[in-house]
Structures are given as C-alpha cells and as structure tokens.
C-alpha cells in the first residue's frame, strides 16, 4: 500500500431534525415560511438527531477498510457522504480518483431506464466516454449475466438482478475507490462468489475498497483495517480482530445479555501453546492413571448413575490416547469462573458462575485448532430436580447458531439432581476455523421427552481460535486432503 491518502474524512457530522409528529413537521414548515416572509428568525421544532458525530479517519491507496456497526449506527450515511450523494452538516470529506459506489439497491440507477441505458448513464457519471463504455459493454453484460433483461426497464428487475447490474458496472469502470454497502448480501450464492473473487483481484491490483459489512468474518478475511461505528460515533479504527472483539462484546451487551469474559491470565494467553502441545501435556498427566479415567469423566458423580459419562475405549496405548476422552475432567480452579448476577426470580436451577478453561480448569481464551477446551458452569439447584437437562450452543460473533446440543439429545437423561451446587463441564474440541466463537448455555428439565429451559446464559464466554495457514475460510474446519489422480 502506498502512503497516498485516497479518502480523508475530517470531523464529519451529519444531523437530522426529527419530529415527534406530522403536526410538528408542519409547524416547522410553516415557521420556515413565516420567517422567510417576515425576515424573522425561524423557530425550531423537533429535535436534532446526529446520525454521525465528529468522525475522522483516512484511507490510503490500496487499503481495504471495513466498516461495522449495528443497524442505524451511521454506516450508510458515512458512505453516502463519502460518495457525494449526501451532504454533511459539519466537517469535510475529500476523495482522490474515480469512485465507483454500490450503495443501497439501485442507487445511481433510474428505474424507468433499461439496463443498457443505466449502464451508459452510470458509467458516464463516473467520467467514462461513450467509446469507453462501448469497449466494456460486453464484459459488463457477461459479468451481470441477466440475459435479455438488459433491454427491459430496471423497475421490472428483481433486487438480485439490480445488484448484478450495479456490481458489473462498478467493477468495469476501473475505479480507484470501490465503495460497497452490504449490497452483495442480496445476490445469489454463485454470483456472490463471483463478486468476491473479483473484489480480491481488484485488491491485488491496488484498488482501494471501503466496505460496509455485518459479517465479522468478512471484516477479518477481506480488510486491512476495521472501523467500528456506534450510535454515529467512531469508537474504534484499527486492527480488524480488535474491532471484531469490541463489536462482539457490545452486541451481546446491547441485546440484553450480560457480558462476562472469562478472566484471561496474561501469562497463559500470551504464550498460547502451539497446536498439539496441550494434548501432549494432557496425555502425560493421565499416564499411569488410566483405571480411574472413566470415573473421573462423569460430569456429576452420583453412585449408581451412569449418565453423563464420556465414552472411553480402554484398550488403547497411552500414546494413542486423545485428551478429549482420556484427560480427567477436574474441578475448575474457582478463580477461573466468572460470577453471574443473581436475578430476583430464580428457577429451580440457575447459574452462579461460568467460564471457559483448558483441561486443567484454568481460564483461557486463545486456543489452537483441535485443542481441547472446557466450558464450565456452577449451577445452583434449589429443589430435587428429576430429569435435569443441560444445553450448549456455539455461535458466531454475529449470533448465528453454528451448533447446539443438549444432554437429552445425547441420551444423557433420567437422573435425579440433589439440591446444592453442581459443576457442569462441557468438554469440546476446537474443530473450527480461526476466529472468534461464542457459547451459550442452558439448563432445564426433561418434561414429556422435551427439554424445557429453566435458565439460559446468552453469553457464557468466547474463545479465539488462532487461524491456520491453508485451513480455508468459514467456521467449519473440514481438514481437507486433496489428490489429483492420473487417469488412463
Ligand atoms: N433522512 C433521515 N432523517 C432522519 N434520520 C435519518 C435519516 N436518514 C437516516 N437517519 C437515521 O440515521 C441513523 C443512521 O442511519 P444509517 O442508514 O446510516 O445507519 P446504518 O448503520 O447504515 O444502518 P443499517 O445497518 O441498518 O443499514 C439511523 O438512526 C437512521 O434512522
């Protein structure tokens, strides 16, 4: 990336006047008329609302910057001002070179014009001559792949077709800056993939890209830098992972969850073990203790109860053993769990504290791919609880549920839980791609063969899995192998 600044935003603010009723709006309108007639000062009705407040940042040539923030945080407003389709209230924006923008659906397109007319219109607004558009026209059509619709008015298009045309036009005008406002989310999967690979090619050829996204993965995968807008203010501009972390924590908090991060022990986390090292230590720990392993692995030990025991083949050599099965599940170091607030109405089973730990019960956040880790919770049971059931859910930081299960699904039920405090441990393997993952927990009862939730912890903690080179993108780490075979 060169040091040339392509976008400079300085102390940018955008204010709207918002009215509580149509009447108030009318009063404002009349007051403006009266003040114009009489030359008197205009009386202000309504309230001022700041969609953006005092935003400053710059983007260098060749950089890809992602903007994240909740709905209404000002992302589209910012892009519109940068692209010149909206005026700011205060501050300045300067851009260098040709700016191609994919703002809201069809922005810059006229619904009455045909696709063809819109291509020419749009490209000419961006400074291309007719001859230049002629030379690119076939390529644009090929990329958009909308067939004969190109000769129909845009108002007859589906939203996906508008995106196809808009994207095809934007990338063929050789922009210096490409501005994309979530538009790709509308296209079909195959088209999205085509666009993403074209965006990557444009990144490589030095095009500057400003991208609004709701996907933390997209931010981390595509962007050099992240900007986080919150209620119209820029709260972070920097490393994508830092931005994702802050955004994820805020999301949980704002959606009513109580955010507890498992206490991070700097020494343990700053020297995160390399892949497999934890497993090795775990195996050393269990060597010589094999006869006790099965007993140790019960989540709760009640004489005579056989549920909640992890399967443990007993004929393997120690060197073959996998810590997910063979390392004993130990009680947490109590400092490793974070206390949860008590609520005024408490159900028969409610959480006291929760945390994510390594297999020694030590709080930890960073794990390598395939490391084994544990999500622990102390549950207070206030009455004899027949058929208790525990649930777990793995979520992306965007709140997408990636996996969930319950002890009922795992056929671990029909077990009486005594009043008291019980530590429940879910041991998992980090079979996920690099990135952040959030966990939710639940506890309840099995009633008529169904899991009835008594308590839920929306945010029980998160882990960061360190990315592995060549692993690929996404959530599921499928551990691919590849062969290219000769055929005769
Ligand atoms: N013309 C307007 N009058 C009053 N308020 C407006 C106007 N346009 C936008 N806003 C408000 O400005 C704020 C920022 O809107 P903006 O569309 O930029 O948010 P956003 O982050 O892009 O949201 P989303 O993720 O939903 O697209 C919102 O609260 C919105 O309601």
Automatic annotation (TrEMBL):
SUPFAM superfamilies found in the cross-reference section: P-loop containing nucleoside triphosphate hydrolases
UniProt KW Cell division keyword: no
Keyword Transmembrane: no
InterPro entries listed in its UniProt record: AAA+_ATPase, ABC_transporter-like_ATP-bd, ABC_transpr_TagH-like, Bact_Polysacc_Export_ATP-bd, P-loop_NTPase, Wzt_C
GO MF annotations, alphabetized: ABC-type transporter activity; ATP binding; ATP hydrolysis activity
GO cellular component: membrane
Keywords (A to Z) from UniProt: ATP-binding, Nucleotide-binding, Transport
Residue ranges occupied by any ABC transporter domain in the UniProt entry: 7-256
Family annotation (PROSITE patterns): ABC_TRANSPORTER_2
Family matches, as PANTHER family: TEICHOIC ACIDS EXPORT ATP-BINDING PROTEIN TAGH
UniProt similarity note: Belongs to the ABC transporter superfamily.
Protein name: ABC-type polysaccharide/polyol phosphate transport system, ATPase component
Organism (species): Solilutibacter tolerans
């Amino acid at each position: 990336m060169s040091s040339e600044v392509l976008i400079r935003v300085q102390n940018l603010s955008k204010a709207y006047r918002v009215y509580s009723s149509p009447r108030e709006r009318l009063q404002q309108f009349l007051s403006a008329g009266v003040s114009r007639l009489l030359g008197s000062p205009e009386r202000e009705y309504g309230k001022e609302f700041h969609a953006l407040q005092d935003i400053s940042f710059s983007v260098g040539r060749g950089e890809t910057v992602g903007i994240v923030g909740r709905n209404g945080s000002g992302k589209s407003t910012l892009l519109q001002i940068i692209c010149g389709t909206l005026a700011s209230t205060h501050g300045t924006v300067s851009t260098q070179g040709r700016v191609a923008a994919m703002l809201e659906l069809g922005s810059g397109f006229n619904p009455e014009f045909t696709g063809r007319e819109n291509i020419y219109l749009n490209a000419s607004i961006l400074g291309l001559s007719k001859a230049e558009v002629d030379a690119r026209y076939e390529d644009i059509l090929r990329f958009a792949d909308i067939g004969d619709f190109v000769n129909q008015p845009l108002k007859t298009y589906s939203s996906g077709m508008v995106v196809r045309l808009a994207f095809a036009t934007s990338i063929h005008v050789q922009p210096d800056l490409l501005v994309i406002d979530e538009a790709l989310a509308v296209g079909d999967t195959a088209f999205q993939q085509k666009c993403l690979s074209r965006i990557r090619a444009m990144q490589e050829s030095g095009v500057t890209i400003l991208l609004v996204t709701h996907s933390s993965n997209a931010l981390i995968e595509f962007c050099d830098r992240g900007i986080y807008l919150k209620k119209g203010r820029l709260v972070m501009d920097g490393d994508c992972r830092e931005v994702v972390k802050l955004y994820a924590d805020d999301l949980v908090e704002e959606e009513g969850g109580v955010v507890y991060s498992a206490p991070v022990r700097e020494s343990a986390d700053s020297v995160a073990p390399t892949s497999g090292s934890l497993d090795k230590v775990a195996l050393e720990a269990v060597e010589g203790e094999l006869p006790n392993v099965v007993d140790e692995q019960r989540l709760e030990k009640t004489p005579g109860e056989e549920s909640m025991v992890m399967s443990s083949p007993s004929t393997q050599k120690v060197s073959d053993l996998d810590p997910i099965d063979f390392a004993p599940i130990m009680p947490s170091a109590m400092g490793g769990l974070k206390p949860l607030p008590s609520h005024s109405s408490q159900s028969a089973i409610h959480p006291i504290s929760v945390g994510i730990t390594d297999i020694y019960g030590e709080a930890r956040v960073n794990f390598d791919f395939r490391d084994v880790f544990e999500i622990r919770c102390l549950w207070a049971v206030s009455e004899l609880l027949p058929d208790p059931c525990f649930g777990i859910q793995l979520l992306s930081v965007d709140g997408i549920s990636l996996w969930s299960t319950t002890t009922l699904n795992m056929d671990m039920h029909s077990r009486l839980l005594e009043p008291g405090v019980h530590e429940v441990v879910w041991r998992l393997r980090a079979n996920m791609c690099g990135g952040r993952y959030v966990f939710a927990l639940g506890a309840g009862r099995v009633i008529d063969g169904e899991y009835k939730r008594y308590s839920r912890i929306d945010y029980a903690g998160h882990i960061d899995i360190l990315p592995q080179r060549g692993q690929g993108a996404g959530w599921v780490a499928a551990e691919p192998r590849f062969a290219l075979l000769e055929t005769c």
